[in-house]
Amino acid sequence: MRGKMKKYILGIESTAHTFGVAVVDDGKILSNIKDSYATEKGGIIPIEAAEHHEKIKEEIYREALKQANITEKEIKAIAFSQGPGLPPCLKVGKEFTKELARKLKVPVVPVNHCVSHLEIGKITGARDPVLLYVSGANTQIIAYSSGKYRVFGETLDRGIGNFIDSFARYAGIGFPGGPKIQELSEKGKKYIELPYSIKGMDVAFSGILTNLKQKLESKKYKLEDLSFSLQETVFAMLIEASERALAHTGKNELLLGGGVACNSRLQEMAKIMCKERGARYFCPPNELLVDNAGMIGFLGEIMFEKGIKEKPNKVDILPRQRTDDVEVKWK
Ligand code: ATP
Ligand code: FE2
C-alpha cells in the first residue's frame, strides 16, 4: 500500500500590525513568516494596516510555503486568528483564509489570538501555566481554570506596550519605544519615585504616563533615569499581579507572552519571583513572543486533531472575543 501524502497545518495571523503565515507539523513550526505595518509616529490606523496586509499577503504566503519546503496540495487545514483584534485587519486574514480553503478544499480552524499566546508556551515545556501576556494593546494575566481560559487580572486602561510607546514618542525617541526605553534604562542609575498602580490583580498605566510626561517636561530628570524608573515600577506591578495569580490559582508555572516580554529586565524579574516561590519560569524565543502566525498554526493543529474545524463559508471574525468566551473543546 502506498503511504498517504504527508499534510500540514497553515496558520494565519492578522489581528493588528502584523500579517503572518506559518506552516506547522506535529507541534513543530516549519516556517513562520511575517511583516508588520509601522508608521513613523507609531500609532495604528486600522485601514492602513489592513491595506498593508492586503498588499503583502500573497508574498508572505508563498515565502512560508517555500521555507517549509511544501506545496499548497500538502495543506490539510487553515488556522486563522479570529479575534480579538481590529476589524479591518482581521477581515484580510479571514478573506484570505476563506479563499484559500475553498480553493484547496480544506477546512478552517478559528483560533483565539490571546489563547494562542498561552498555548504556544507548551513549546517551551510549560504544561498548565499562568500567562503574563504583555503586548502593545493587551495586558492580561490568563490561566486555565474549570474548563475555560480566564482573565485573572488585566489593565484597567491602556496596554503596557502602548504605554511605553507613548512615553517614548513623547520623549521623541521613535517607535517602537520598548527596545529604546530598555536601552536607555540600562544607562539609568537613579530610581525616581513614580505612582504604583495595582488593585488586586489589575493594573493601570495612564496615571503613570501623565506623571512621567510631567517629570520629563520639568527637565529636572535624565531620560535614562526616567526609563529605568519606568521599567522598575511597571514591571514590579506586573510581577506582583502575576505572583498573586499564581497564589490564587495554586499553579506553579509562569509563562511570558507578548512583545513586551522581549524585555530582559522583565524576564529577569519574573525569573527571580519564580525562584523565590519555587515556581517554574518559561519564556518562548522572541519570534514567538511577538504577534506571529506560528502560534496560530500551533494551536490550530491541536484543535484540528481534536476534530475542531469549520467549513470556509461558516467562519467569521470576532473582533471583541473575550478570552473566557472561548469554548475550550480541545483539552
Ligand atoms: P497585540 O497587542 O494585538 O497582541 P501588538 O502588535 O501591539 O499586538 P506585539 O507584537 O506583541 O504587540 O508587541 C509589540 C510591543 O512590544 C510594542 O509596544 C513594543 O514597544 C514592545 N516591545 C518590543 N520589544 C520590547 C522590549 N525589549 N522591551 C519592552 N517592550 C518591547
Ligand atoms: Fe498578541
Q: Which descriptors would you attach to this protein?
A:
single chain, 331 residues, alpha/beta, Nucleotidyltransferase, domain 5, 2 domains, five-stranded mixed β-sheet, 10 helices, 12 strands, binds adenosine-5'-triphosphate, binds fe (ii) ion
Structural overview:
This protein is of the alpha/beta class and 331 residues long. The chain has two domains: 8-113 and 290-325, Nucleotidyltransferase, domain 5; 118-288, Nucleotidyltransferase, domain 5 (2-Layer Sandwich). 41% of the residues lie in helices and 21% in strands. The protein contains ten helices and twelve strands. The chain has helices at 46-68, 87-104, 113-119, 160-170, 177-185, 206-217, 223-249, 264-277, 286-289, 294-305, and strands spanning 8-13, 18-25, 28-36, 75-83, 108-112, 130-134, 139-145, 148-154, 198-199, 202-203, 253-257, 280-282. The chain has a five-stranded mixed β-sheet with strand order 3-2-1-4-5, sandwiched between helices. A five-stranded mixed β-sheet has the order 8-7-6-11-12, sandwiched between helices. Strand 6 (130-134) and strand 7 form a beta hairpin. It starts with 7 loop residues before the first strand and ends in a 26-residue tail after the last helix. 49% of the residues are buried. The model has no long low-confidence stretch (mean pLDDT 96). The structure holds adenosine-5'-triphosphate and fe (ii) ion. The site of fe (ii) ion has 5 residues, from helix 3.
List the helices and strands and how they pair.
Layout: E1 8-13, E2 18-25, E3 28-36, H1 46-68, E4 75-83, H2 87-104, E5 108-112, H3 113-119, E6 130-134, E7 139-145, E8 148-154, H4 160-170, H5 177-185, E9 198-199, E10 202-203, H6 206-217, H7 223-249, E11 253-257, H8 264-277, E12 280-282, H9 286-289, H10 294-305
Parallel strand pairs: 1-4, 4-5, 6-11, 11-12
Antiparallel strand pairs: 1-2, 2-3, 6-7, 7-8, 9-10
Fe (ii) ion binds next to helix 3.
